[in-house]
From TrEMBL:
<comment type="pathway">
    <text>Amino-acid biosynthesis; L-methionine biosynthesis via salvage pathway; L-methionine from S-methyl-5-thio-alpha-D-ribose 1-phosphate: step 5/6.</text>
</comment>
<feature type="site" description="Important to generate the dianion">
    <location>
        <position position="103"/>
    </location>
</feature>
<feature type="site" description="May play a role in transmitting local conformational changes">
    <location>
        <position position="100"/>
    </location>
</feature>
<dbReference type="GO" id="GO:0019284">
    <property type="term" value="P:L-methionine salvage from S-adenosylmethionine"/>
</dbReference>
<keyword id="KW-0486">Methionine biosynthesis</keyword>
<dbReference type="GO" id="GO:0016151">
    <property type="term" value="F:nickel cation binding"/>
</dbReference>
<keyword id="KW-0560">Oxidoreductase</keyword>
<comment type="similarity">
    <text>Belongs to the acireductone dioxygenase (ARD) family.</text>
</comment>
<dbReference type="InterPro" id="IPR014710">
    <property type="entry name" value="RmlC-like_jellyroll"/>
</dbReference>
<keyword id="KW-0408">Iron</keyword>
<dbReference type="GO" id="GO:0010308">
    <property type="term" value="F:acireductone dioxygenase (Ni2+-requiring) activity"/>
</dbReference>
<comment type="function">
    <text>Catalyzes 2 different reactions between oxygene and the acireductone 1,2-dihydroxy-3-keto-5-methylthiopentene (DHK-MTPene) depending upon the metal bound in the active site. Fe-containing acireductone dioxygenase (Fe-ARD) produces formate and 2-keto-4-methylthiobutyrate (KMTB), the alpha-ketoacid precursor of methionine in the methionine recycle pathway. Ni-containing acireductone dioxygenase (Ni-ARD) produces methylthiopropionate, carbon monoxide and formate, and does not lie on the methionine recycle pathway.</text>
</comment>
<dbReference type="GO" id="GO:0010309">
    <property type="term" value="F:acireductone dioxygenase [iron(II)-requiring] activity"/>
</dbReference>
<comment type="subunit">
    <text>Monomer.</text>
</comment>
<feature type="binding site">
    <location>
        <position position="139"/>
    </location>
    <ligand>
        <name>Ni(2+)</name>
    </ligand>
</feature>
<feature type="site" description="May play a role in metal incorporation in vivo">
    <location>
        <position position="94"/>
    </location>
</feature>
<keyword id="KW-0028">Amino-acid biosynthesis</keyword>
Length: 179
């Protein structure tokens, strides 16, 4: 189940907690984050990346046209991935990108945590969620210690995912919310 928890960054005090998709989208819109639900394709667990891309082609093509993004791929991170700890570590530090960071969750879940205007916006995204975090937004991502996520990634820059770390330790001080 999708969940948004908003907290004060200084005190950790909870400001809002909701699992209603419309309220999540409404709460994220003022900081420029796009959140929506897409129908989930009926594919076998662990489907090949090309099959995942093709299953979402109509939605993906419309999204690419609307946003003028250039390419998409599929990322899969599971508990048995030999580099799961190293991959998790690079996502866990607060960073920004020079382009929007867009993910659509086909399988599993993960938390996009945005740090904006003294607040922490912790979006626990699950199967069927699309989230687009605007360029230059301070954020981090956590798929958990036992990751299970297959997601479409959309890029404007065809060279792929390029983080610019902020040097802040806030991600280590703010636990993610999973339900």
């Amino acid at each position: 189940m999708s969940l948004l928890t908003i907290r004060d960054a200084a005190t950790g005090a909870e400001i809002l907690k909701t699992d209603d998709a419309a309220k999540i989208a409404e709460a994220l819109a003022p900081i420029g984050v796009r959140f929506e639900r897409w129908p989930v394709a009926d594919l076998p667990a662990g489907a090949e990346p090309d099959a995942v891309l093709e299953a979402y082609r109509p939605h993906l093509d419309a999204f690419l046209k609307e946003t003028k993004a250039g390419t998409a791929d599929v990322i899969r991170l599971t508990a048995d991935h030999p580099q799961k700890d190293a991959i998790r570590a690079k996502f866990l530090s607060e960073h920004i990108h020079t382009e929007d960071e867009v993910r659509f969750f086909h399988e599993g879940a993960g938390n996009f945590v945005m740090h904006v205007d003294g607040k922490i916006y912790d979006a626990h995204c699950t199967r069927g969620d699309l989230i687009s975090v605007p360029a230059n937004t301070r954020h981090w991502f956590d798929a958990g210690e036992v990751p299970h996520v297959t997601a479409l990634r959309v890029f404007t820059d065809t060279s792929g995912w390029t983080p610019h770390y902020t040097g802040s330790d806030i991600a280590s001080r703010i636990p993610v919310t999973v339900g």
